[in-house]
Amino acid sequence: GAVVSQHPSWVICKSGTSVKIECRSLDFQATTMFWYRQFPKQSLMLMATSNEGSKATYEQGVEKDKFLINHASLTLSTLTVTSAHPEDSSFYICSARDRRTNTGELFFGEGSRLTVL
Amino acid sequence: DAKTTQPTSMDCAEGRAANLPCNHSTISGNEYVYWYRQIHSQGPQYIIHGLKNNETNEMASLIITEDRKSSTLILPHATLRDTAVYYCIDPNSGNTPLVFGKGTRLSVIA
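Predict the joint structure of the above. Result:
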């Protein structure tokens, strides 16, 4: 099946710094990618929809100025957590749909664990 | 909100079949039912999906009721590595994201 890769898989940063997470579709093009966040013992929660060449669409309660999303190409979306604070510590997961298929299957990255000290 | 309901947790003895039920009573006629699982600290892993007919692949079997309001994921011979949270998802059609419910936490016991 299609492959989605995230980098880094884990990152530790100091409070107030910014962290960038990359999401790549390795063998297919994705006009849309989705970013999820998962806190311990909770389910995945959708943060935003990343659209290639246009602005991302954010879910209610997600600050667009804090979680900057850039989808500059059909194979790469980036999520930047700006001025990170300990409460932003979470597991961030991206996903994409292979537009060549019409079944709706989503392919997920391995996840990026962010720890803000 | 997720459009499916699943039991919160289940236990299964190693080597036995694990049957995980899911209710998706509001599914529309052209929507697939998807099953994913998430092993601790990993991204969700696709398992199987189906529309009307029962499906089988190398990982699992999917039994869908005739009215399509529920389905059962079957892991025929559960192993310890199958311990994970299993999500049944009724996606919207088109280019929309998957909405995850709380899933079923399956514990395979030796």
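Residues 31 and 40 of chain B are 28 Å apart (CA to CA).
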